[in-house]
Amino acid sequence: MQLDLTRLGQWSEEGRFVVTAEHVQQYARATNDVNPQHAAGQVAPAAYAVVPGGLAWGQLVRKVAVDDGSHRSVHGEHDLYVEHPIRPGMTLLTQVALVGVHPRSTGTTVTIRANTRDDRGHGLSHQYLTLFFRGVNAARGTGESPPDHTFPESLRDSPPLARVTMRVDADQSLRYAEASGDYSSYHLSDREAQAAGFPRIFLHGLCTMAMAGAGIVQTVCPEDPTRLRRLAVRFSAIVFPGRQITTQLWDLGRENGWGAYAFEVVDDEGQVVVKNGRAEVAV
Questions:
Q1: CA 16 – CA 119 distance, rounded (Å)
Q2: What distance in Å separates the CA atoms of residue 261 and residue 173, rounded to the nearest whole number?
């Protein structure tokens, strides 16, 4: 595999996506989000912004990574900022760009930024997708790194504000694929997952992130889910259907005028599947 760095800083054409109440409801069901406003399709969950983003950055990844089929990227981190909520009837326009490439000891991280606005020009969200290409070596590091969201280790000495447990259903990966448009084979086929080195199908990382977001809304702002304005994660382990995951949330107080929270997600065997979680909430 080679990385085509000539695309660094070049923005794609705008992808177009129309939001319907039915699709918002489908996404809420796919992520086990029971907030009444999400379930009714009145307003989209914060993590819904990854849907138009994913349709656009998938095309960019295929252009940046010149692959002979022997390598696969791993979604390492994601950092989503919400400027305005997404509602049914909106037409979303999304552009993506490769903004950073950084060599590591065992491969290379690639950072992509996606910006989404509505067709009236109002900014809705921006997000950073970080991919890790194992065994692929970039000659040099260049461009920007995504914002930091490291978990404050001093919090280990204090109990979390809340713990929210959700079950990962047997058909969760299929439901999320249908709602998000991400039909990556190792989320849907045991054979394909095993060919990629995994024991069986596993959950999309962005579905885990969305489920964590639902738990945070349930704890902090159930009456107004649009107050969730940032959701950042590092994916540290895979989640299998049939397991339970628990989001553990710590209150950081106010930072820069926002309510700030750190969180981690663990499965029912105690494995940390999301590290360095950070949420920011309008107050």
A1: 9
A2: 27
Tens of pLDDT, residue by residue over 229-283, are 999 999 999 999 999 999 999 999 999 899 999 999 999 999 999 999 999 999 9
Max CA distance (Å), the chain: 50
Could you tell me which of 199, 196, 198, 206 has the C-alpha nearest to residue 232? 206
Asked if residue 76 lies in contact with residue 131, where contact means CB atoms within 8 angstroms, the answer is: yes
For the structural domain made of 2-281, what CATH number should be given?
Answer: 3.10.129.10
pTM: 0.94
DSSP string, 199-226: SS----HHHHHHHHHHHHHHHH-TT-GG
Q: What is the DSSP letter of 8?
A: B
Residue 185 gets which letter from DSSP? G
Beta-strand runs (E) in the chain:
2-3, 15-18, 65-66, 73-82, 91-104, 107-118, 123-134, 142-143, 162-167, 228-235, 244-255, 258-267, 272-281
